[in-house]
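#struct-help
A.M.: can someone run this one for me? Single chain, 306 residues.
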Amino acid sequence: MKILSTFVRRTKHLFEDPEYMLGKLICRIIPNRYIPDKLYLKVLFRGSMGYKLDLRHPKTFNEKLQWLKLYDRNPLYTTLVDKYRVKQWVADKIGEEYVIPTLAVYQSADEIDLDKLPNQFVLKCNHDSGSVIICRDKTNFDLEAAKVKLQKGLNRNYYYCWRELPYKSVPRRIIVEKYFEDEDGELRDYKFFCFDGFAHSVMLCYDRASGDPKFYFFDRDWHLLRLNKRGKNAPEDFSVPPPDGVRKMFDIADHLSKGFPFVRVDFYNIKGKIYFGEFTFYPATGMDPNLLPETDKLFGELIKLQ
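D.P.: on it. Structure tokens below:
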């Protein structure tokens, strides 16, 4: 009976959404890099978001990010997602004082020389997400483990994971950056959601080391916006003090994002000193179930597709 029940359930899904089920089967059989972008994204999207990806008439934020992946082929994006080369672009736009200093650049993990680095620093690959390694004390730093992680990152073409074309041709490097932290020993992220020169809101990210990171949206006047699941469930009296110079951060995000249908501009704020973090054109690769359905629709309306 159990075998029959499983067969009926799977057969039912096949007839309900044959394109998805066929695509899912293809994705299991064929190696990732040989699957066409459109089919690959449709399968990932349906499985992640729970609804079909409509590329002919995209309406939601997450749908339009998939459309932009496929059809917005601005060659500048390859420079802007490169965590090394973007620094010069940002410096030319707003000044060197907003750029985190680069201490070293390596072509491979074996080139890392601890003797030439300060006691605290940050290691990362310039072309992907998730390869960040923080060193707070060089005397206790596991260099060999860091090398393994970074070399693995260098060997991976991040484009094939989520079909984010700007990452496909980034010259891969390891960069070392100056270490920063807030007064309480962590480093808060301020992620501005920008639509062609207008920073609609900022997502504050903090408490990452606890294992339960916090993500809250605020408007340009630093009022809580209940745009994601955590924000929706926040107490009525919830508040977090704004960073010094938050209005200036919004202004800079406006300026840097002009000309792009959507981009998230990330900053750090160390005692009122603003530092550019990175550009993200497809947050959560455009498959973010933590955004509320009404937010998915709202942000989708703000993206104007050409």
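A.M.: thanks! The chain has eleven helices and ten strands.
D.P.: also worth noting: The chain has a mean pLDDT of 92.
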